[in-house]
Write a structure and sequence with these properties.
By secondary structure, the chain is mostly helical. It is 71% helix and 0% strand. Helix 1 crosses helix 2, helix 6 runs antiparallel to helix 7 and helix 6 crosses helix 8. The chain starts with a helix and ends in a 15-residue tail after the last helix.
Length: 214
């Protein structure tokens, strides 16, 4: 699984870099994109006109699938937290008797996503997502540094450079997020921290975030 994950990231990175490079070659440098969020679609159309519809349809289907998967994953997480009483159990741990799905968690996520689609642009939504994702990635790199270098009896250079480099890159990206994304993300993080402190009586008790099995 670890090898497959790394290879997936590597292949996607190579393909993405190639796509962006080709688009840069096709699109004139002096000509601004009609829409920054869908720039690659316009570059594809300039290469071959039918690609505009083909790429647009592909993005629509891909975003529908990835969005649906993300909502299901988020609903499962809320259900697990509700079942563990990290969130109100009476609401989030409720399972539909007919369909056997965490009904309230699915509806809750759906309402948030629907509201966000009306008030957030695609770019702003991505920045809010990246706020949390980059913090998580920094945590992973910090944990790897502590586990494989700081606390290791045999300190090796290749156990030092990757986590430090990863942490610095993620920190640089996080610091360059827009001000609104940092403010909203910061408020959400503080709210989550305060809620966690309340549930654990000042972090003196364990708090489980169990995710149910498939």
């Amino acid at each position: 699984i670890m090898f497959a994950t790394v290879m997936t990231c590597l292949v996607i990175g190579i393909l993405s870099a190639a796509e962006v490079y080709v688009a840069q070659l096709v699109w004139p440098a002096s000509r601004p994109f009609p829409d920054q969020d869908t720039a690659y679609v316009y570059a594809a159309a300039l290469t071959w006109a039918p690609l505009f519809k083909i790429v647009g349809l592909t993005l629509l289907v891909a975003n529908f699938g990835s969005g649906l998967g993300a909502q299901i994953g988020a609903a499962r997480l809320l259900y697990g937290m509700g079942r563990s009483n990290a969130l109100p159990k009476s609401f989030f741990a409720k399972v539909d008797a007919k369909h056997h799905v965490p009904r309230n968690s699915v509806i809750f996520i759906g309402v948030i996503v629907l509201a966000g689609s009306f008030f957030l642009t695609y770019g702003r939504g991505i920045e809010l997502l990246n706020f949390g994702a980059l913090i998580a990635f920094m945590g992973v790199n910090a944990a790897a540094f502590m586990r494989y270098y700081a606390r290791a009896s045999d300190k090796k250079l290749w156990n030092l450079i990757p986590p430090v480099l990863g942490f610095v890159i993620c920190l640089a990206l996080w610091l360059n997020l827009s001000r609104p994304a940092q403010v909203v993300g910061g408020i959400w993080m503080v709210a989550g921290t305060l809620f966690g402190a309340w549930k654990t009586r000042g972090f003196r008790e364990p708090l489980s975030f169990e995710v149910p099995a498939e």
